[in-house]
Predict the 3D structure of the following.
Amino acid sequence: MTGSTEVPTRRNQLPLIIAASAVAAAAGTVWAIVRHEDSVIERGRFDGSGRIVITDGTLHTRDTDAACAGVGQRDTLRSGGDLEVWNPAGLRAGTGTITRGTAGDSGCVLEFTIPGTADRYGSYTIRTGGNSLGTVDEQALRDGRAVVRVP
């Protein structure tokens, strides 16, 4: 005989079958999680609002938009002043503005709005000028009941 005869070798296909099964199972799990929206945390946005109460170190003005404002180290606490909200992980979740200040019995009350705040963090730290003013609850921020007291 002049030709060579090769005997076909059988390869063990068990590892290939196990790998394919694992990939299919993983793909099925991902699809199931994505398909069922209730089990996926989806971050949305909300318009937050509240008040900052300064009990000391305020200036009473005659400006109709700002009947009072912070002075000295609190000079960023004024009508038109910028605010930031930070989530518990230390990431900025939104930015906003102090809309007006009103002098009251408890001190200077500054109202603020923070449109488009990232939700589902539970609590937020209000900051201005690089300084932390305090922490507020998400539901209070959503409902406009958030109050930060600055001594």
Notes: Residues 53 and 149 are 5 Å apart (CA to CA).
